[in-house]
Amino acid sequence: GTHHFHTCGCGTEFDKTEHTGGEATCKVQASCSVCGTAYGELNANNHKGTTYLVGQKETSCYEPGYTGDTYCSDCNVKIATGTSIEMSDHSPASVWSTDDTHHWKECTVVACGNIVDKAEHTGGEATCKAKAVCSVCNVAYGSVNANNHKNTEVRDAATESCTTPGYTGDTWCKDCETKIATGTDIPAGHKTVKVPAVGASHENAGNIEYFTCSGCELLFSDEAATTVITLADTVIAKGEHSYGDTYEKDADNHWKACACGNIIEKAAHTYGDWKVTKEATATEEGSKEKTCSVCGDTITEKIPVDKDTNSPQTGDNSNLLLWIALLFVSGSCLTACVVFKKRTKQSR
Question: Has residue 123 got a pLDDT over 70?
Fold first, then answer.
């Protein structure tokens, strides 16, 4: 029914009302919240029970996956459509597969068989002995290069001397035993090294410019080694000192000097006695000089003004004082003699 009510013992109905409340689903009717009676229709769009998936599929490296459609476990009606899942990446093998021109890796997923990273061999260098080795997969590929020789040596070389020609030697490949270059002849001849000229001095001998040979002991006057000379021919004799007759001097010494700077006969000046060149007076100074007997160096000194006498100056002051003393002594002796004679006469 659609209502609920109470019944009297006499059969009369009272408090009759419609069912209310509750929730209808796809599986059961709503249950009245007043009397608990199921009432009404099912709600085909209200799925409250569990669900399950239909058509789900895992993805792989060779086909996409699917999340599956969602069905209601109560009414078995599809309530949601699934979505596609993109394919996963391939799982390439750890080693390369190769042929004469290419390398690649195969996917290791069962039933895939897809080829990954396929490319032509590249890199490396072919030589006369071996093919190039691919820089990616390390497999030899292509052909040898007959003109690319990596391991060579020079054979039959000979060193030239001053009189015997030499030879640079032929170049051979040690891998394929092929001569790849022919050597050339080296003419015989002296290898000259220049010795620069050095000027002679008064102390040391010098030498002219000349040339030595690094291969023998010969000396030459020219770089082309056409004229042989001896070591004596290269010597420039040292020069002789020239001192002349004139002395050089300073305040203390005199000597003779060569233009090169060398000196001889260096010695202290040897001066003679003082000579008065101008007599001193009571108003003017005089002068005197003495001269080195070897080099002629002259020293001049002043004679002080003589304020005690106008007599001519015949020497230095020491001589004047000596004369004054002698005169004083002579006068004293003369006075003593006169007195002695007077006393003698009186006693008689």
Answer: yes
Rounded to whole angstroms, the Cα distance separating 324 from 160 reads 105
**Distances in Å between the alpha carbon of 35 and those of 3, 30, 68?**
9, 12, 42
pLDDT at res. 60: 80
What is the rounded CA–CA span in Å between residue 295 and residue 248?
8
Question: In this structure, what token pair is assigned to residue 210?
Answer: 């000349």
**Residues 287 and 301: beta-carbon distance below 8 Å:** yes
Torsion of CA 263, 267, 268, 271, to 10 degrees: -110
DSSP 295: T
Pairing of the two strands 3-7 and 13-18: antiparallel
Amino acid identity of residue 259, one-letter, is A
Q: How far is CA 7 from the centre of its chain?
A: 117
Beta strand extents in 32-151 (DSSP E only)? 38-39, 51-54, 65-66, 69-72, 78-80, 84-85, 97-98, 102-106, 115-120, 132-133, 140-141
**Bridge partner residues of 66 (DSSP):** 57, 84
For 23, phi and psi rounded to 5 degrees? Answer: -145, 125
What DSSP character marks residue 10? T
- pLDDT tens for 78-106 read 999 999 988 888 888 889 999 999 999 99
Considering just the CA atoms, what is the radius of gyration of the chain in Å?
A: 71
Cβ atoms of 158 and 167 closer than 8 Å = yes
Residues 6+ apart with CB under 8 A from 343: none
Note the pLDDT of residue 306.
Answer: 84
* 8 A C-beta contact, residue 209 and residue 198: no
User: What tokens were used for 97?
Assistant: 């597969």
Distance of CA 119 to the CA centre of its chain: 46
pLDDT score, position 159: 92
Which amino acid would we find at residue 15?
A: D
pLDDT tens digits along 305-328: 987 755 444 444 445 555 555 566
Task: Report the alpha-carbon distance of residue 135 to residue 91 in Å, rounded.
Answer: 22
What does the pLDDT read at residue 104? 94
Say what percent of the chain tops pLDDT 70: 85
| The pLDDT of residue 220 is above 90 | yes
